[in-house]
Write a structure and sequence with these properties.
The chain crosses the membrane at residues 12-34, 72-94, 106-127, 147-168, 247-270, 331-350, 356-380, 392-413. Belongs to the auxin efflux carrier (TC 2.A.69.2) family. This is Protein PIN-LIKES 3. Its main location: endoplasmic reticulum. This protein is mainly α and 414 residues long. The chain has one domain (3-218, 247-413): Na+/H+ antiporter like fold (Up-down Bundle), CATH 1.20.1530. It has 19 helices and no strands. The chain has helices at 3-28, 37-63, 66-71, 74-97, 104-112, 118-129, 138-179, 181-206, 232-246, 249-252, 255-268, 270-276, 284-295, 297-308, 310-313, 320-347, 355-363, 372-380, 384-413. Helix 2 crosses helix 13 (284-295) and helix 4 packs antiparallel against helix 5 (104-112).
Length: 414
């Protein structure tokens, strides 16, 4: 298959995303205000608690089997590699560009966490339906592509809320400590009632720790000189102890993750699967009803993604070189490293010879930052406007970057 044909197959799904995103942006304009701030909050909650879990659960239940679970074991490690490599590149970017202190956690978050759920769920099925796709029968491709994308969304949610959340929490806490109590009040006022209400709402669930100096995640952030020297082994033991005691499992198990667990259980337990899945199942109406809810996730998420970019159009004081660095990390360095990781896994026979599965693994390294980073920034009231600008430019450039990388990835696996 020629390069131009692959480029055509890769570009149409991204163009569809851009068109629906533009509609969402238009609906969020002040003069239209159909997707105003309050409406976005409500619709986001609907997607987060209802649509996404339904989509993830039904797709996994319909397509995953006990044998395929064994074949898919590499995906969690591949996604973990995107976070680890992205964090390392983000740390280097911070050292080079010297951004303001309050942006350090945001930069690490944007470099490490990609949009592992919404975009793959939109792009992969659309590619399957395009004529000339290298992934074979469109129906079979769609079925398995949705399962891979759903699994990606569930695993990504766990990593974001266990890893990125803690990095941004520590960064914001350090910034507030350095600025003093007066700056604490000004930050909360500047972020408005939204951050106050969010902080109050999540205070019991997320439970930010007061002392972050012994937290293992602080290794990624610039650190002041310690007053007394401690052995490396003692530091490691102490940090492992602190992080294990402060991991918040309630935050890690987002509704999408719970939906994935439910889908897995139904898929691998034969009596449950026979009872619920398939047109001849006794409770097939339950599966079809949940599937109908899940189908609403993709267009709704895309509209909200466009509406959330509106704040970025209004501008902020985001350092230009920091923004350029994040774009370079997400669309140049991380995809190149991702090709090396996946190719090494294929060479070592860790990954089966499934072109679609290999494509999904590669795509996970070439996505824009996760939209949940904006939610976390809003939660702590630090870097909200800068986050909006970063999202605006990274998603605008995704039209070119994701298309080109998708074309290359299809060429590599076909």
């Amino acid at each position: 298959m020629g390069f131009l044909q692959l480029l055509s197959v890769a570009s149409f799904p991204v163009i569809k995303v851009l068109l629906i995103t533009a509609v969402g942006l238009f609906l969020a304009l002040d003069d239209i205000s159909i997707l105003g701030e309050d409406a976005r909050k409500k619709v986001n909650q609907l997607v987060f608690y209802v649509f996404n879990p339904s989509l993830v659960g039904t797709n996994l239940a319909k397509t995953i089997t006990l044998e395929s679970v064994v074949q898919l074991w590499f995906m969690p490690f591949n996604i973990l590699s995107t976070f680890v490599l992205g964090s390392a590149l983000g740390w280097i970017l911070i050292k080079i560009t010297r951004p303001p202190k309050h942006l350090e956690g945001l930069i690490l978050g944007c470099c490490s966490a990609g949009n592992l759920g919404n975009l793959p769920i939109i792009i992969i099925p659309a590619m399957c339906k395009e004529s000339g796709s290298p992934f074979g029968d469109p129906d079979v491709c769609y079925q398995y592509g949705m399962a891979y994308a759903s699994l990606s969304m569930a695993i990504g949610a766990v990593y974001i809320w266990s890893y990125v959340y803690n990095i941004m929490r520590i960064s914001s806490t350090r910034t507030q400590k350095e600025d003093g109590s007066s700056n604490d009040n000004s930050i909360m006022k500047a972020s408005g009632g939204t951050s106050e209400s969010l902080s109050h709402h999540f205070s019991q669930t997320l439970n930010p720790t007061k002392d972050t100096m012994d937290d293992a995640y602080t290794l990624l952030l610039p650190e002041a000189e310690s007053e007394k020297k401690v052995s490396i082994s003692s530091k490691i033991k102490n940090r492992v102890r602190v992080i294990s005691s402060n991991l918040n499992f309630k935050a890690m198990f987002a509704p999408s993750t719970i939906g994935a667990i439910a889908g897995f259980l139904i898929a691998v337990i034969s009596p449950l699967r026979n009872l619920i899945i398939g047109s001849g199942a006794q409770l097939h109406v339950v599966q079809e009803s949940i599937s109908m809810l899940g189908e609403a996730a993709i267009p709704t998420v895309t509209l909200i993604m466009g509406a959330n970019l509106l704040k970025g159009l209004k501008g902020s004081s985001t350092p230009v070189w920091t923004l350029v660095g994040i774009v370079a990390v997400r669309y140049i360095f991380l995809p190149v490293l991702g090709v090396a990781v996946v190719k090494a896994a294929i060479h070592l026979s860790f990954v089966p010879s499934d072109a679609l599965y290999q494509f999904v693994l590669l795509l996970q390294h070439a996505l824009p930052p996760a939209m949940n980073i904006g939610t976390i920034a809003q939660l702590f009231g630090v870097g909200e406007s800068e986050c909006s600008v970063i999202m605006l430019w990274t998603y605008a450039l995704a039209a070119i970057a994701v298309t080109l990388w998708s074309t290359l990835f299809m060429w590599l696996v076909s």
